[in-house]
């Protein structure tokens, strides 16, 4: 079923560069087929096809694009068995998790289909002419959003379906009317080929231009830079490491025409345990916390890598229960040997920082790419003095920061970098402190959650999966949820444009029946 | 009335650097008082005060901020006489223009006050909990937008009121809940001091923290870089030259934590004359065009510096009438001697490019900072071959590009850089060509207008004053109109946050009565 080829528009192409194979991270065994890297030629061809497709694709109406997204979802569902089977081999993630992720992926596509049909994404605004206004008449001015152009999407390793070939970035860019050029992640090349074939089938079934979707295989830094600096690419979606994300940001900024980069990069997702909650259920929180920490071998962007608490009743119970749970963890398979190696050295680096104590370490597990959990501890004063303690260790390691008092806790929170999430465990008695904390957390995180755990990102209209730098390169948006479509749009105003030439969504009588802002007031008339 | 001081929060401060004075560009006479440049100390103090004010200011409700903006408008209106009088001296712009600009400035402030009261700016979204969902219950997730933090605003020379101290960037940032640190433009320091005193009076009258507004005087590149790289500054608004704008973009990108820069920089605002319109009223269009070209001595960001037409009936009449109008133009006073010098050399550079013919030149005028209009012409094939012909000459010079046929016209349009505006003159007979042109223009410009002139930017809800690079550094937004508030906001999600801790706009029962998206559906219930 797998060919080892990439998809450059409608063409299946075998690269001419280095041959790479995904590996089963449980055994280290290389998986067939081999894929050869593409390079400048494939990037140029993909970008040319995407550019050629752009005007046709963006002129399609919301219903057409919604049907296309739904067709992609249907094609993925039809292929879900082989996709999940291959993804298990390539990622070591459990079948149940990947089955759930496949549903999430099709759910995302359907969410954007619904968002398109609802129509507010157009951002339609009409300020009608005022021919009798003095001293000067007012022109008729109408506004809508248009897509930016072809978008480069980089598949992430840790969600081989939901943040990869047909993941959130691809779904939102396609919804916005932007052709997509995906760079497949080396860690799951077969999964990527299967998903790409599903997308291609949908392109054909919907009669769309071939350049709407391309999937390339290539060297991350080299092909990534070629793609981001191609003049036809107009925006970038990325989820991955801080180093790789910042390299793409720099490449995009170095272009004669700079373009936006939406890079989701790095977050330690602080969990703040307030005194009342801790006193009431310290041990219970400790056990539940490790459940979140070790989920998926700690390979979630929202993995809780930092716990903040004030010395007092319940903290020792939390730490004991968490340490016990970590020691009892059987160890997970990490996504790749490289990730497992980076995890081990990151964990050991963090454990070796001055003032850091290792409280517990879990079983390494039997995989080749194993990653044993670890629980570390440090004092609040030491934490604020050592910025390296804030660096993300991708995997199931977390650092408990013990603060002397509430003032130190607030100082620690203020010293944090930007985060995807911030979690608070609080009882009613904690509300005054929680109220003081909330404005500080609002400046640090894209999502604030109470009495839960940050792993598990709901896909809906209100979700924000984003946050201040370095959590992302652009805090003004989200990469999960329907708001993500706005990343790939820009507003255009039409002044006194003849009725026959106006886009339908801006015509008198509201033929599309969408919400529009008339002289500032929302209306569907 | 003028003291020569800057405003660092509530304190009037005299700088300790170089002394500068504005000049009357009509006579070259230096104007009292002298202002001394501030530097790192004033930037640090301003940023510290802004940071200190931020949490208090952003916690104010929409009504409080709306009243503040209206109070600023009232204070400016009360001081309009002296402000306009001083601005005439400092800019050489006519009194009637500046009186109109004062109204526009207060109108902008009131527009943002209305936008705040309407409440959609919150971007409120609620996805209610689904405790019974299977396989997993859904948490309660709510979203609103929060302000980014202190904003640096750079006053522009060409709109000493509407794009300066209390102009659109300041109004939209204050509306969003961001304290503002303005760098006053050297060309109108007295006007800036007067307007800043009006803003300060409003800060005091509304009982807001002093750090909400600061106005600094200083060296553009030096103080500008200090300001943009201060870690407390979180966004930048700028209108000015491409060189200066790109320097700020680079400074912002070089920070440990990069920040957004909204720089409105460079646009030649193409005017496309279609055959039907040209044949019907070539001469009339030529005369009207020069009216737009020479308005305010050509010192509008939307000044029409480029005319595109296909050879055919009416084009010679257009050119003759335009040339005659240019020759008859008495010449205007430019804003500064430096701008007049740059204009003259830019005009002469453009006129001297291979293939360019000078059709007409206007009177230079009697001012010291004079800038005579010029009309140049070139062939379409030459234009696409020479990128320098696209460079903005800030002032009343325009280049007529004569295209051999419609295909060449479309090729010329496709070769254009990003623009603030694109204008089309078309009759009904031109609609097929206009329809072919429109999608191309949508990719080039932030505003497309028919049968009018680009100078004159309406301040409303549907306006876009922005556009693809290099018109701006960020095409996803506008610097004029109510949408501009979104530049200074980012979304935050609240998951299972206790009711008492939720921001009022997200509480059950919609206590603020604003539009919110409930499970994706807009509602005011």
TrEMBL record, chains A, B:
CDD domains in the cross-refs: ALDH_KGSADH
Q: Which UniProt keywords apply?
A: Oxidoreductase
Question: Which residue ranges does the record assign to the Aldehyde dehydrogenase domain?
Answer: 16-460
**Record's protein name:** Aldehyde dehydrogenase (NADP(+))
Organism taxonomic ancestry: Bacteria, Bacillati, Actinomycetota, Actinomycetes, Pseudonocardiales
């Amino acid at each position: 079923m797998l060919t080892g080829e990439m998809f450059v528009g409608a063409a299946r192409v075998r690269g001419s560069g280095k041959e790479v194979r995904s590996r089963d991270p449980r055994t280290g065994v290389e998986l067939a087929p081999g894929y050869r890297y593409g390079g400048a030629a494939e990037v140029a061809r993909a970008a040319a096809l995407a550019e050629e497709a752009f005007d046709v694709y963006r002129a399609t109406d919301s219903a057409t694009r919604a049907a296309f997204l739904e067709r992609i979802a249907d094609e993925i569902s039809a292929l879900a068995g082989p996709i999940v089977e291959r993804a298990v081999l390539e990622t070591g993630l459990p079948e149940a998790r990947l089955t759930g992720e496949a549903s999430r992926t099709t759910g995302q596509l359907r969410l954007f289909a619904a968002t398109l049909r609802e129509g507010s994404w157009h951002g339609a605004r009409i300020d009608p002419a005022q021919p009798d206004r003095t001293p000067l008449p007012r022109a008729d001015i109408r506004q809508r959003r248009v897509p930016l152009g072809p978008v480069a999407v980089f598949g992430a390793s840790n969600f081989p379906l939901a943040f990869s070939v047909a993941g959130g970035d691809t779904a939102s860019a396609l919804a916005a009317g932007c052709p997509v050029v995906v760079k497949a992640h080396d860690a799951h090349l077969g999964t990527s080929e299967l998903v790409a074939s599903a997308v291609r089938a949908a392109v054909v079934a919907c009669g769309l231009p071939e350049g709407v979707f391309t999937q390339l295989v290539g060297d991350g830094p080299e092909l990534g830079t070629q793609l981001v600096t191609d003049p036809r690419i107009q925006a970038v979606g990325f989820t991955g490491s801080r180093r790789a994300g910042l390299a793409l940001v720099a490449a995009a900024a170095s272009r004669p025409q700079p373009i936006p980069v939406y890079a989701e990069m790095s977050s330690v997702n602080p969990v703040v345990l307030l005194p009342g909650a801790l006193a009431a259920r310290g041990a219970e929180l400790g056990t539940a916390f490790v459940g979140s920490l070790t989920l998926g071998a700690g390979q979630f962007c929202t993995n809780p890598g930092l716990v903040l608490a004030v010395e007092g009743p319940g903290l020792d119970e939390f730490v004991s229960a968490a340490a016990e749970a970590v020691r009892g963890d059987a160890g997970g398979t990490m996504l790749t040997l490289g990730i497992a190696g980076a995890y081990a050295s990151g964990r050991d680096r963090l454990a070796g920082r001055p003032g850091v104590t290792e409280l517990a370490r879990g079983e390494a597990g039997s995989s080749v790419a194993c990653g044993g959990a670890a629980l570390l501890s440090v004092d609040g004063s030491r934490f604020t003095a050592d910025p390296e303690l804030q660096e993300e260790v991708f995997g199931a390691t977390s650092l408990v920061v013990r603060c002397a008092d509430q003032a130190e806790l607030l100082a620690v929170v203020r010293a944090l970098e930007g985060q995807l999430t911030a979690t608070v465990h609080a009882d009613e008695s904690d509300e005054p402190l929680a109220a003081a904390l909330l404005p500080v957390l609002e400046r640090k995180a894209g999502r604030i959650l109470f009495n839960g755990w940050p792993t598990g990102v709901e896909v809906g209209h209100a979700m924000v999966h984003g946050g201040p730098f370095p959590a992302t390169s652009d805090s003004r948006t989200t990469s999960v949820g329907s708001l993500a479509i706005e990343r790939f749009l820009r507003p255009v105003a039409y002044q006194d444009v003849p009725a026959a030439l106006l886009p339908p969504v801006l015509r008198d009588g509201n033929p599309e029946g969408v919400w529009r802002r008339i002289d500032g007031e929302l209306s569907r008339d």
